[in-house]
């Protein structure tokens, strides 16, 4: 829009605002139509044990599959869906589809105990959620400990008693709670104390800087990650590192006793059929042993 606008600063601004408004309207239309015509999909990304590369679970990541535009990632969709409230309906679609996907994966030898992590926005913590989740689990023959609820500080910062009650109910049901993007917010540490958190996910920005060529940054990041790991373990949490893209990052994190990781090195998020093909490549010896 900058190129099309004149020299006048005000007109730059207007053109940009118009572009943003248009784009937003388009995304809102995609969301509405996507809910009506079933365009939302739950892609899954493996979460592996860093000690041996075995698949421990999967994170469900929302994709809007537009028939003409192809796969749209959640970036803009989630923000707009949170603002207009449609995130509760989208979230329910992702929850039911990803649990069905987990049930399908469970039928593959060696993957019967894997878990499913699902991202939740603040608005999704409605009073009806625990009962809804319990019934989806029954229908799909999945036990509650195999479900991880991923939340960010945004959920905990609300400090809303109703949200707190839903979190406690999910925890009482036997589901686990993960604190996502840890280390990127304002006061992450205190949340470990005040909420029933079981898993800490170290943000991918830390993983990236662990292997940077810039030595001072690398050393500081290592100390930070070791600090987060030590505190998390002392609070009884397991740790997952996000965004692992290289063997070097895997090796560094494994040497630090970080239990789990996910990233493009192991697999990108995939739709179910592609994931099932990909799973055949994971630690075949172990799968053969389990299957026989
Ligand atoms: P997140 O929960 O932190 O998810 C991890 C993001 O990192 C995903 O981006 C994933 O595709 C990406 N990722 C995984 N491995 C790598 C890697 O090795 N390198 C890099 N550069 N990226 C990697 P995605 O799928 O675009 O999702 C972005 C965010 O959107 C998520 O961040 C989450 O906050 C939100 N989101 C995704 N699905 C849902 C959903 O169903 N509901 C809600 N409320 N939010 C969702
Ligand atoms: Mg997440
Ligand atoms: Mg994350
Ligand atoms: Mg993230």
UniProtKB/TrEMBL annotation:
<feature type="domain" description="EAL">
    <location>
        <begin position="24"/>
        <end position="283"/>
    </location>
</feature>
<protein>
    <submittedName>
        <fullName>Bifunctional diguanylate cyclase/phosphodiesterase</fullName>
    </submittedName>
</protein>
């Amino acid at each position: 829009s900058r190129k099309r606008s004149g020299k006048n600063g005000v007109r730059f601004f207007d053109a940009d605002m118009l572009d943003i408004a248009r784009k937003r309207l388009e995304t809102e239309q995609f969301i509405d139509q996507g809910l009506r015509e079933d365009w939302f999909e739950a892609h899954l990304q493996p979460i592996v044990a860093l000690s041996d590369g075995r698949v421990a679970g999967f994170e469900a990541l929302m994709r809007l599959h537009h028939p003409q535009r192809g796969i749209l990632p959640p970036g803009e969709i989630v923000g707009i869906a949170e603002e207009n409230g449609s995130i509760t309906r989208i979230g329910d679609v992702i929850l039911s589809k990803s649990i069905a996907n987990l049930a399908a994966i469970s039928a593959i030898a060696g993957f019967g105990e894997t878990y499913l992590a699902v991202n939740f926005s603040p608005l999704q913590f409605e009073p009806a959620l625990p009962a809804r989740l319990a019934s989806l689990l029954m229908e799909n023959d999945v036990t509650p400990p195999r479900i991880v609820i991923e939340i960010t500080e945004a959920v905990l910062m609300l400090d809303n008693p109703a949200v707190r009650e839903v979190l406690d109910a999910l925890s009482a049901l036997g589901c686990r709670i993960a604190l996502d993007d840890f280390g990127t917010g304002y006061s992450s540490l205190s949340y470990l104390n005040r909420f029933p958190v079981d898993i800490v996910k170290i943000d991918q920005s830390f993983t990236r800087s662990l292997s940077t060529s810039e030595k001072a940054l690398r050393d500081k990041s290592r100390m930070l990650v070791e600090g987060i790991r030590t505190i998390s373990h002392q609070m009884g949490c397991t740790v997952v590192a996000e965004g692992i893209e290289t063997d070097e990052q895997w090796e560094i994190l494994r040497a630090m006793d970080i239990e789990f990781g996910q990233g493009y090195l192991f697999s990108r998020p995939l739709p179910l059929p592609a994931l099932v093909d990909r799973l055949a490549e994971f630690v075949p010896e172990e799968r053969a042993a389990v299957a026989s």
